[in-house]
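Hi all, long-time lurker, first post. I run a small reading group and we've been trying to get comfortable going from sequence to structure in the token notation. Rather than ask abstract questions, I figured I'd post a concrete chain and ask someone more experienced to write out its structure so we can walk through it together at our next meeting. Sequence below, copied exactly:
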Amino acid sequence: MRRILSTALLSTPIQLVCIVILVSLFASHLPAAAVQSAYTLSVLIKDLLLIVLPIAVASYIASTLISFRQNALLLIVTLLVFEAFSNATSVMYAYTVGISFEHWIPVFKEGQQNLTSLTPYFTINAIRPSFWSSTNGVIIGTAIGIIGAFCTPGFFSQTVFKTRELMGIVFSRIFMRLIPFYVLGFLLFMHHSGLLNQIVESYTTVILMVTATILAYQLILIAIASEFNKARSLSILNNLSPAVMVAFTSMSSAATMPFTITATEKNLKDPKFASMLIPATTNIQQIGDCIANALLCLVILKNFGKPIPDIWSWLPFLLSFTLVRFTTAAVLGGAIFIMIPLYEYYLGFTPEMVALIIALNVVLDPIITSTNVLGNGILSIIFERVWLFISRSKIDEPIKAAALTIEHPFTREEAKSSNK
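-- Answer (accepted) --
Happy to help. Here is the structure in token form:
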């Protein structure tokens, strides 16, 4: 019994549930200095993550593309088409839900604006240059991967694989063990600042409607990913739950990326495939964001007395929205601002309507971010199946071949001769 209890307490999902319970029970009784210290630690962990992340992202993507050799370009094209289709489908789904339940669309309540600010004692974010981002890591990793895919295996590919191996050790042995502290500080911050109360007390009906719409869509995706197997569906959700919790509290898909990769690895036939998919899609494929903002557009139009667009008016917006999603990766945290011209041009948004959708994005940020992470984890399973069908080859064979270059400081041909 003691062994079972000890194992359960070491489980990350159990630890996170305990933290949520403890925060709800005792956060109000903690001194401000304790809350600020915990928040400072969480921000410090997040800053360290964002410093390490570009190297990890570049090595993850490059090593995967090198593993696929001549199939690397096909993989990239397939992924881009899949992302565009995924985003377009989610936006169209939100529109269908909106017009189907138009009479149920709520009218806003006045939100609370008097949130208490809380700042960390210090941060190290200033030492990270502006160009040092996971987005640039994706670009660099893709370039290195394409070059390596068409080069003879040797020192170049060995360096990439060894860097990836090192990054795996850093995340599994350091950052994964810091998840409870990471979540604790951000939960205390949300409680202390009043954000949790605002989410519950203001815009309640809107939040419930958006959340239910997103979750219903993701349940459909889980059913497809699990091939309608209930046990498999529960396993997928259980594996992704730690990453979803981290995303909800940190409100950053980029900072959650290492945890999303680790969680997604458990759901794939080839775990290493997650190291390419998640970094490449985190800032492009955002199911929660697409559904929430498309639905919020309809809600705001109704609240300002404007007509809901018909399908022919919506399609140009849908196409532009889908294409612009590929540019938002370069503006981390600024996707909503890039979308504003689309809202104004295609949907006739006024400055007041724009201000409202920005405010709602801020309030809904924990829910949108966490559902983005959940969606990316689920869609990775579906994409792996699509890729296997298109490539008509097993993913684990090139990965195993690439692993040979990690284990031996010489090329495959030399390895074969030495085995003789």
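A couple of things your group might point at:
The longest helix spans residues 351-391.
Confidence is low (pLDDT under 50) at residues 329-334, 394-420.
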